[in-house]
Specification:
- The protein is α+β, with helices and mostly antiparallel strands.
- The protein has helices at about 5, 10-15, 70-75, 305-310, 330-335, 355-365, 375-385, 395-405, 410-415, 425-445, 465-485, 500-505; strands at about 25-30, 35-40, 55-60, 90-95, 95-100, 105, 130-135, 150, 170, 190-195, 205-210, 215, 230, 250-255, 255-265, 280-285, 295-300, 315-320.
- It has a domain at about 360-505.
- It starts with a helix and ends with a helix.
- The structure holds 2-acetamido-2-deoxy-beta-D-glucopyranose (4 copies).
- The site of one 2-acetamido-2-deoxy-beta-D-glucopyranose has 2 residues, from loops.
Length: about 500
């Protein structure tokens, strides 16, 4: 974005009455290289390895599946950002191109227009551009250690029923060198859309994500990571929400944070590679190909009061600010984290990583239920002792095995009292025992699987079969969990195929 376009923009000036009074403006605009690409989300899915979708993360090197709610800057030892005191983490969804043959390829990210004499930000590897803007130096309260927030809704697929106005938008560059960048983000009605552009963008696609500017002054975070922040009462501005007054519930003015992601889509612009039905081929890592689900996550991590000082220093502009320290691009690029979730993010992928996660989360929820939990540990232990290297049990195999052996009446599968010698048990025995015990326990306790007994021959409504499949699905999940915990590679294939079909068709 060009500085001249901001200053020259009457709408923005209108939104910032302070401009007229000759007051200073602080606008930090700086690049951050990629620190890692990983399927983690310490805000939305803390501790989950993996989380539901892949992100590109920039900033400090303490990013992890879960992170301290204390002072991030005290734990980090390097950052990929231009200012060496900024150990914050910033992350967004990745973008993928879907080829006609159905495979996906990640679209490379990075590259900022040369502005403010800042050649750090033109040289970042991957990464994004970050803005902190203060219209009123001296009247802005910077974030505190432990502060986190999120903007956007990863599940959104349309813009109906929201009062948000263009807090996420895409710019379709008309040519090389950021062609068409003549207006502030989300302000160009011909090139900016809230959905992913529907035609080829000759110079790539830019995504801008604008955060709210008012804070409740109390909570560093809230369960949905959004309730402690708000837009001004006049609603979000077209562009930077620097004007307007904050609602009484959120009276404290915080810096306007904005992310700018540039995707180099130029390799994917051949119309012959685009879908034949005329749709556009790009998908966010959430599986969203509308683009409405774009979102940004933020964990504050500036050292001491360095951000506050910068926000109070009138005239800080671009990647230069007298109160802040800069680092060399080489140092920034040398800062990186090894991905924790080992999966391919760069090849042609047959599916987007984690696409099955909603189902997995459902199973995880069931796993936590009182009906399953008591038997999970036993099954897991058996699995560890016996199943190593076994290819796994198929649903149909287990189903007919249970019927043919009348498993539901066999003491060895139902009893929790008898000390069993399982040394000659087959994997089917173990699986049958787990399944039978979960179902029986649930029935006896009038639980989720409460239809009474497993009797497929006299199954009037098909419910028993469904219940069987559900427990079987859990079983498959346990196997994958086990493999993930004990083997190097998480074999997602194990969770797909029949498993996915049964889960999605019967639930
Ligand atoms: C992430 O957390 C794990 C488990 O606590 C730890 O082993 C690992 O070193 C951490 N990674 C980073 C980059 O801090
Ligand atoms: C799918 O299409 C892409 C792009 O044309 C190509 O690079 C890739 O090799 C193809 N994959 C398969 C399995 O055909
Ligand atoms: C940085 O930008 C200046 C122009 O402002 C240019 O002369 C110089 O070569 C650039 N340095 C690098 C490393 O690109
Ligand atoms: C379990 O059974 C196997 C053979 O079926 C036998 O060799 C083993 O000694 C038994 N173990 C115990 C603890 O009874």
């Amino acid at each position: 974005m060009y500085w001249s376009t901001i200053l020259g923009f009457s709408t923005l000036v209108g939104a910032v009455p302070q401009f007229g009074g000759g007051g200073g403006l602080t606008m930090l605009r700086f690049g951050c290289s990629q620190v890692v690409i990983d399927r983690l989300d310490p805000l939305v899915n803390p501790g989950a390895i993996p989380s539901p979708h892949v992100h590109q993360i920039v900033g400090g090197n303490t990013f992890n599946a879960s992170m301290t709610t204390g002072d991030v800057s005290a734990k980090a030892s390097c950052t990929t950002c231009a200012f060496s005191e900024d150990f914050s983490n910033y992350w967004t969804a990745n973008l993928y191109f879907k080829a006609r043959n159905g495979t996906y390829k990640r679209v490379p990210q990075g590259g900022a227009a040369f502005q403010f004499n800042d050649n750090f930000s033109t040289q970042t590897a991957g990464g994004i551009l970050v803005y902190y803007v203060s219209a009123q130096p001296g009247k802005i309260t910077a974030f505190k250690p432990g502060f986190r927030m999120l903007v956007g809704d990863a599940m959104a697929r349309s813009r109906t029923g929201t009062k948000l106005r263009r807090q996420n938008c895409y710019r379709c560059y008309t040519g090389p060198n950021f062609g068409g960048d003549n207006a502030a983000p989300c302000m160009d009605n011909t090139l900016d859309t809230e959905y992913l552009p529907k035609k080829q963008c000759k110079g790539g696609i830019r995504s801008n994500i604008l955060f709210p500017t008012c804070w409740d002054g109390k909570n560093l975070d809230t369960p949905n990571h959004q309730d402690h922040i708000a837009y001004p009462t006049s609603g979000p501005a077209d562009f930077l929400s620097l004007g307007g007054s904050c609602p009484s519930t959120h009276p404290i003015r915080i810096p306007q944070l904005m992310y700018e992601v540039v995707w180099d889509t130029t390799k994917f612009n051949n119309p012959n590679d685009w879908p034949t039905d005329g749709s556009q081929p790009f998908y966010l890592s959430t599986g969203d190909n509308t683009g409405y689900g774009q979102h940004g996550d933020y964990v504050f991590g500036w050292k001491d009061n360095s951000l506050q000082k910068a926000m109070d220093t009138s005239g800080c502009m671009g990647a230069k600010c007298s109160t802040l320290k800069n680092q060399a691009i080489g140092n920034a690029k040398a800062c990186s984290i090894k991905p924790i979730v080992q999966e391919d993010n760069e090849g042609w992928l047959t599916e987007l990583p984690g696409l099955n996660m909603p189902m997995m989360q459902f199973v995880r929820h069931l796993l936590d239920s009182s009906y399953v939990k008591p038997f999970f540990r036993e099954y897991r232990r058996d699995f560890l002792q016996v199943f190593h290297g076994h290819p796994g049990v198929q649903c149909s195999e287990l189903y007919s095995w249970c019927i043919s052996t009348n498993a539901f009446a066999q003491v060895k599968y139902t009893s929790s009292e008898i000390q069993l010698n399982k040394s000659d048990w087959t994997p089917l025995d173990h699986a049958a025992r787990f399944l039978v015990r979960v179902l029986r326990f649930s029935w006896e306790n009038d639980g989720e699987w409460s239809s009474g007994k497993f009797d497929p021959e006299n199954d009037e409504n098909g419910e028993e079969e469904l219940e069987f499949y559900q427990v079987w699905a859990i079983l498959q999940y346990l196997q994958a969990e086990w493999e993930a915990a004990n083997v190097d590679d998480w074999e997602t294939e194990r969770l797909t195929g029949t498993f996915t079909e049964i889960m999605t068709n019967t639930l």
